[in-house]
Amino acid sequence: MQLRACGRSSRRYSVHMDLHVFLIGPGGVGKTSSGPHLAKLLGREFVDLDEIFMSGPGHIGRYIKNCGYAQYVRENSKLFFEHIYQRTSPCVCALSSGFLIAEEEVEIVELNKSAVKKKGHSVLLLSHSDPDDCAKIVVARQVGRGLNLRQEIELPKFLARLPVYLSLADQVTVFRGRPEGAAHSIFTQLNDAQSPTADIC
Question: To the nearest 10°, the Cα dihedral for 108, 113, 116, 122?
Answer without folding.
Answer: 140
